[in-house]
Amino acid sequence: MITTAQTETPASAPGIGTGILETVFNLKRPSDTDLLLLRSGEKLTGAIVNPSFQFRTAYADLELPAGLLAGIDFEGALTCQEVIVTANGNRLSGFLQPPTLVIRLENGSQVETRREKVSKAIFRIQRDYPPVDPRSRLIRLRNGDVLSGSLITALEFVDANHARAPFQFSDIETVTLAPGEIPRVTARLRNGESWQGRLGSDDIDLQLDLGPRVQIYHGRIDVIDGRAESLADLRSGKDAFHRVPDIAIDRPGKIRDGVESVLTKSTERANSHKADSLGAGSPSRSSHNQAKDRDGLVWIPPGTFMLGSPPEEADRGLDEGPQVKATIDHGFWMGQCEVTQAQFRAVIGINPSHFTGDTNRPVEKVSWQDALEYCARLTAAEHAAGKLPEGHAYRLPTEAEWEYACRAGTTTRFSYGDDIGYSQLGSHAWFTGNSGSTTNPVGTRRPNPWGLYDMHGNVWEWCLDHWAGGSATEGPDEGRNEQGSLRTARGGSWLYDGRFCRSANRDDYFKSSRCSDLGFRVVLAPLRP
Fold it and tell me: Where are the beta strands (DSSP E) in 372-430?
């Protein structure tokens, strides 16, 4: 067992302001104002009044004071995770809680903006920053995050012979961890020598220079770097804040075998929960409608309903009204569950999801175009196999179809009742209160009265319509309206509070967005002329 002879303790700090970023995301940080750059191209200047940001990363839940930040990138590439950069150049990726920013404009008015509408937030350079330990270490994680701070606990190394060596922190230049269940460690010393073995502990405790103490599992760490030039590059902004490159779904491509079996397995898994899930007194569809169900699809009969929410509904959004009477003049089939990772891979050939490990989780990190491509390929495959009715095709639901199916004949906030205190939501939805900060396998919460699972929560679901802005549109545009690039999503997700999971709640995303809480379900319906 090789144990360093001391832990690192903070030393006297350099002058305040040393190593503070002057630019972030290739933008110069102002000294007198904060900036919100919106996806629409608009720029808001003023003071971001959020005192701090709760930030959920893969390795810790953090609360970071706004005054210690240089910028937040909301564009997120594949994962739609935000990237926070601290004033001294640390890079952290994760999700903001709550997902809103408030800026006080120069005229004194305040504007609250959802994260989906923001491209970047740039924070002004402050007069005073906390002191930074000159003996800080830089830790690079495998996901691209970069942290700097003081190691709290002594590092322990074990070699093949259980030998000991009198290593000091000051002796070590870098520690590189090769991936594996027991990561192999290469410690490079400042005198040019190197030592190999394994790390003796599972976790590394780090006191961030600008932020709280964090504990990081060794398997997430790539390098612990103590070189002065590395820290200097980080704090000068020269360190690369690279983002995960976007992916393109190859097109055209071969439809993989096994589509039908995957759809059936997903349905069987959901149905295995149905007897326990429905409970006593739950309304259901007629036996005639149930008889029309197909593997993995639920028959939705035509009908009329009130689209949107009434003015008195608790937690109502302004874009949910005015309510209008909407008529669905055609029956259609809707996916009993959100499209799973297994289903998506069977049709497209890849699984782009951020959360893996169980292929019955909903697929996410798919754009609106990706969802349309899935529908087109699935249609072609099933037509070729003679499995589809003549003149029918898979597509995304319109916004009206989605809300009609979600409500399933109800007029309450949720398909199971109003649930003002959200005390029952956990039985019906995966949301921020019970999700464990991840997606969950489809069909494992209670279905709505028409037998559809996860209409509330798990992942947001793409709709066919463009974003109408003021309210949901009764007349579906079938995706033909090319006004702007925003498309509608419904249902809330594992990342959001319960109010976002209500039947009438609406959201908008750029159709190119690929987020780890955004997926879709399919509709099978006659082609429209």
Answer: 392-395
